[in-house]
Design brief:
Radius of gyration: 23 Å
Distance between the termini: 24 Å
Number of helices: 13
Oligomer: single chain
CATH class of the largest domain: Alpha Beta
Strand content: 15-25%
Shape: globular
Length: 448
């Protein structure tokens, strides 16, 4: 039996400045990679042992990619043959103590000289506990695998019922949130409906499969340009996706989605891609938090502290150009991580730090084959094939590890010529908490 009391972080003592990094996302790994050398001891703490490329999670959920093709083990990235005095621990940080300069975990405390908070975001349900209980988020690999299993369980059960009402609820899919995740998930489902599902399930009439995309604002892809939003809406509608703008989901009990105003949609699948909030850590004073994120200055220092930094999605850096903070995409985290590593080296040498200035490299979203939109620097807006090719190139290059780049690229090439999503596997049947009917089905057919 595992005795937690016998576990500890087991980090060796050091005379070097210790940098503790909480989070192995783009911000965290870019700090760690550039602190390589003999000046620091670097400790990274994370609840998962891999770095993931979350913009491709929807492809895992829709059977386009396996999860290990968008993830890289952190210990592989920072092995002892590559980095001196780097230590990774698979553990959740419960709180920080800025006065004692320690972080608290379930297996003990760890002191730091410099603390880097790079915890990113988590799903924001806007206080709707019913939706939180029954909807499918899409922020982590387990979420994507749960959704993948659930989708194919729905298709399997739809092929085994003659009840038109039950079958329709199994074939109705509601995606809440018209940002990149929602748009891309809807597009992937529409392509499956057209090219894959009729062959896999010949007894099911997939003309009855409805894909609803619900967005609370007056256009899809609100963070992107109006031109890109307009093109995206046309692409979605041409693919047969039912787009509901200025619409809010008020409730979802696992079977019925209720839209503000009274409309109800019978569905057993609601994907929640409507928003995120900062994954905050307890211990920082309330005045250090703004708009649900950690308020930082131009050096990414948390307000009120000269040895605590926050970078990436969790950081709120207010500037004249970005009064609401930087966009929640990979580039700010990457750029802040790179600069922070340089500034930490300057700090221990007594040199002045350099202020952060975000270089906006543009925004991209894919809807389907040969259909994507891109807002690029210089007020350039692309749509269709060229935007699609740009999206493919950017996302392949952003993956960590040569193997992942090769696997994803080969998968995409294969799918381009065959229209195949090759990972249509129910590895582990998924049952929502409280879903007695699905639990009875799984038990009856001995699926576990």
């Amino acid at each position: 039996m595992l005795d937690i009391d016998k576990l500890s972080l087991n980090i060796p003592d050091t005379t070097k400045p210790r940098v503790v990094i909480i989070g192995g996302g783009f911000g965290g790994i870019n700090v760690a990679q550039r602190l390589k050398g003999k000046d620091f001891q670097v400790v990274m703490l994370d609840r998962q042992n891999y770095h993931g490329f979350w913009p491709l999670l929807y492809q895992v959920a829709t059977a386009g990619l396996e999860p290990d093709s968008i993830a890289e083990p952190l210990r592989k990235m920072f092995g002892s043959d590559k980095f001196d005095d780097f230590h990774f621990r698979l553990v959740k940080v419960n709180s920080v103590n800025p006065i004692a300069k320690t972080v608290h975990t379930l297996v003990g405390d760890l002191s730091y000289d410099y603390l880097v908070i790079a915890t990113g975001t988590k799903t924001n349900y806007f206080g709707n506990e019913e939706v939180k209980k029954n909807a499918f988020p899409l922020k982590q690999v387990p979420h994507a695998l749960n959704l993948r299993s659930h989708l194919f369980q729905c298709f399997e059960q739809a092929s085994m019922t003659a009840d038109p009402e039950l079958q329709q609820s199994l074939l109705n899919f509601v995606i809440v949130g018209g940002g990149p995740t929602g748009v891309e998930t809807a597009g992937a489902l529409a392509e499956m409906r057209k090219h894959i599902l009729p062959t896999d399930y010949p007894g099911v009439d997939f003309s009855r499969m409805n894909i609803f995309l619900v967005e609370g604002m007056d256009r899809v892809l609100p963070p992107m340009s109006p031109e890109s939003s307009k093109k995206t809406l046309k692409y979605l509608q041409d693919m047969g996706i039912i787009v509901k703008l200025n619409a809010l989901v008020e409730g979802y009990d696992g079977y019925v989605a209720t839209i503000k105003g009274g409309e109800k949609i019978q569905t057993q699948t609601l994907v929640w891609a409507a928003g995120v909030q900062g994954a905050l850590i307890e211990g920082l004073p309330a005045e250090a938090v703004e708009r649900g994120r950690i308020h930082v200055n131009r050096y990414n220092q948390v307000l009120g502290f000269d040895n605590i930094f926050a970078i990436g999605d969790i950081a709120f850096m207010k500037t004249d150009k970005w009064p609401k903070g930087h966009p929640g995409v990979a580039q700010p985290a990457i750029q802040q991580g790179k600069l922070l590593s340089k500034n930490l080296k300057r700090l221990i040498k007594g040199e002045e730090m350099e202020e952060f200035e975000y270089v906006d490299k543009g925004s991209l979203a894919i809807i389907g084959r040969n259909q994507a939109v891109a807002d690029l620097p210089g007020n350039i807006h692309l749509g269709g094939f060229f935007a699609w090719m740009t999206w493919l190139f950017v996302h392949v290059m952003a993956l960590v590890g040569f193997r992942n780049k090769l696997v994803v690229l080969s998968n995409w090439v294969y799918r381009f010529f065959t229209y195949e999503n090759g990972t249509r596997l129910i590895i582990r049947p998924f049952v929502r908490k409280g879903d007695k009917a699905r639990r009875d089905f799984v038990n009856k057919y001995d699926m576990e």
